[in-house]
Amino acid sequence: MSQQVAITTRGVTRDFQSGSQTITVLHGIDTEIRAGELTYVVGESGSGKTTLISIMCGILWPTKGEVTVFGTDIYDLDDTALVDFRLENIGFIFQQYNLIPSIDAASNAAVPLIAQGMDRHEAREKARGMLEKLNIGDQADKLPNQLSGGQQQRVAIARALVHEPRLVVCDEPTAALDANSGRRVMDLLREVAVAEDRACIIVTHDNRVFDLADRILVLEDGLITHDGKEMPDDH
């Protein structure tokens, strides 16, 4: 049985203005991300990795091209429909944790569920369960400034996973974690990704977890130069 396609990009370019100069960061990206796979996006700083995943999940508009996520052309949606689509279907884990400083870890992790209309108490209990999976259940009642950087990152990961999104998009999710914690996080992300109707995309420089990928895309100067199970020998 063929795998479901989670994301399709066709001719995706992205330009930025720097004064009077136009800088092209992506040069016509054509690719498909398949459900049931853990896909890594790898490349040097400035190669376009974060720009590409931001376009794939509806945060940054492409200059040209089409992006389809689970059959929906997301840039044909109006702003409200796009926000609703992201809330329902996508979980985000970015380098900045973006935790709300005035509420505890469980409430931070529960934000997507509350935004979807779930009862606050029920949402917190479900969030606590996700924090337990990430081995920080005992930190659920602490404020972000009472947590270490690694603990804050795991709260951000819990927030991304708690509403069981079909697409999880991560930017360096293991950057603040030691080797053992990093592998635990990646194993949890694999649990989410390895399903017929779900996918996970990870931008990472962490060669400690390259072996966990089903597929690695290498970006160089805004182009995909490698697409395979393993890193090429020259990287």
Helix and strand arrangement:
Blueprint: E1 5-18, E2 21-34, E3 38-43, H1 49-56, E4 64-69, E5 72-73, H2 79-89, E6 90-93, H3 105-109, H4 111-115, H5 120-133, H6 149-161, E7 167-171, H7 179-193, E8 199-203, E9 215-220, E10 223-228
Parallel strand pairs: 3-8, 3-9, 6-7, 7-8
Antiparallel strand pairs: 1-2, 1-4, 4-5, 9-10
Account of the protein in words:
The model has no long low-confidence stretch (mean pLDDT 90). The strands form 2 sheets. Strands 6-7-8-3-9-10 form a 6-stranded mixed sheet, sandwiched between helices. A 4-stranded antiparallel sheet has the order 2-1-4-5, with helices on one face. The chain is globular. The chain is 30% helix and 29% strand. A hairpin with a 2-residue loop joins strand 4 and strand 5 (72-73). It contains 7 helices and 10 strands. With 235 residues, the chain is of the alpha/beta class. It has helices at residues 49-56, 79-89, 105-109, 111-115, 120-133, 149-161, 179-193, and strands spanning 5-18, 21-34, 38-43, 64-69, 72-73, 90-93, 167-171, 199-203, 215-220, 223-228. The two termini are 33 Å apart.
Task: Spell out the key features of this protein.
235 residues; alpha/beta; six-stranded mixed β-sheet; four-stranded antiparallel β-sheet; 10 strands; 29% strand
Largest sheet: spatial strand order = 6-7-8-3-9-10
What gyration radius follows from the Cα positions, in whole Å? 18 Å
Uncertain stretches: none
Helix content: 25-40%
Question: Separation of termini?
Answer: 33 Å
Q: How are helices and strands ordered from N to C?
A: EEEHEEHEHHHHEHEEE
Major sheet characteristics? 6 strands, mixed
Described by its quaternary structure, the protein is single chain
Total helix count?
7
Total strands: the figure is 10
Return the average pLDDT rounded to an integer.
Answer: 90
Structural class: alpha/beta
Question: What's the shape?
Answer: globular
Question: Into which percentage range does the β-strand content fall?
Answer: 25-35%
